[in-house]
Amino acid sequence: MASATESSTLYDTLRVWLKSVPWRDARHLQTLAWMMVGLLSSNHVALTRWTSFGIGRAEFAQSTQRRFERWLSNRRISVLHLYGALLRQVLADFKDRRGYLALDTTMLWDIYCVVYLSLVYRGRMIPLVWKVMKQGSASVAFHDDRSLLVFLKRHLAPYEMYLLADRGFVHRELMGWVKQTPRWHFRIRYKSGIGLYRWDGGKFIPLPWHVDPGRVVCYHGVYVTAGHEKVHLAVGRQMGAEEPWIILSDEPTSPETLYEYGLRFNIEEGFLDQKSNGFRWESSKLRDRHALQRLYFVMVVTTLALICQGSAVVVEGQCRVVDPHGFRGHSYARIGWDWIRHALARGKALLPHHSNSD
Fold first, then answer.
1. How far apart are CA 257 and CA 151, in angstroms?
2. Residue 41 parent element (H or E)
3. What is the pTM of this model?
4. The predicted structure's pLDDT at residue 2
């Protein structure tokens, strides 16, 4: 358990980092910083676990918990606006002008569906934008994705972005939106029972397709449904696989297209950081959609701080101090978390944040 001195040191570091965000009320910043301290110190999303690490004028734990609950229920706090300001700092020094976005959903208690987009970053994910919806299905319509995409379009305008999505996102409207957005592209997986068509100028002609195990076949300028968006396909089948990978693209395809889509599976590490191997989001007692939207903000802004700290550890050549692997075996978030514990326990200073690393 962190001491009062360790909690204060961590709070001061986080408060300075968060100061660049345009806060309407400084108390909102202070409360967020203490929630982040509680989350990092307890490794749990339960508000009752955070109260032991909050230092303030409140004499009773219940008062501190109510303070956190009021913050999470305060609809005047626009978490996406605040997070966008932090992202601008982190992405300002992003050297690679080509980025990959993973679009996905996750379910909470079969009651809430969370749709979100993350940036593929050095084998892991940086959460960028999210939306909590009260529904018992992971299937979402394009209008649920569109607001998130428009948000990112503003923040990622200088970059060439590749949207990676699974079969549940094969929306004609989504592909059309990406095609109309400058410097945006898509790589979307399609179901195995795909029907291909060519347009001969007068009607759609069915196009038979086949791929042998261990091979990749590409089709250009075809339609997966009569009257659908014209696309390009890369179809690959691994030896022993039950079904092939069928990747739709707005650009001519090649075997490289399958590799690009495969980057999406880095999102599984993000699931672990948020759930069983990290903050245990599914253990939250909150059942209000707006409060869950803000709770996810607390988690993602904490994750972003850990990634920045982990990147700084790698840049400073201190990775092996906290990572027992001979090479970087942990995620940047895990390295950052381990460094914070290491530094606080030994009275060391936390490293300045680096938004990018080599």
1. 26
2. helix 26-42
3. 0.84
4. 59
**Per-residue tokens: 97:** 């002008």
Domains of the chain, earliest start first:
4-77+284-346 (no CATH), 81-268 (3.90.350.10)
Tokens standing for 211? 């791929």
DSSP string, 174-223: HHHHHHHSTTEEEEEE--TT--EEEE-SSSEEEE-----TTEEEEEEEEE
pLDDT one-digit tens code per residue, 237-275:
887 777 888 999 999 999 999 999 988 887 666 555 555
Q: Pairing state of beta strands 160-165 and 98-108?
A: parallel
Distance set, CA 199 to CA 48, 173, 190, 193 (Å): 61, 20, 20, 20
Report the half-sphere exposure of 291 (CA within 13 A, side-chain side).
15
Rg (CA), the chain: 22
Residues 6 or more apart from 325 whose CB is under 8 A from it? Answer: none
Residue 241 DSSP code: -
Answer whether 257's CB lies under 8 Å from 187's CB.
yes
- Greatest mean pLDDT range, 43-57, 113-127, 148-162, 218-232: 148-162
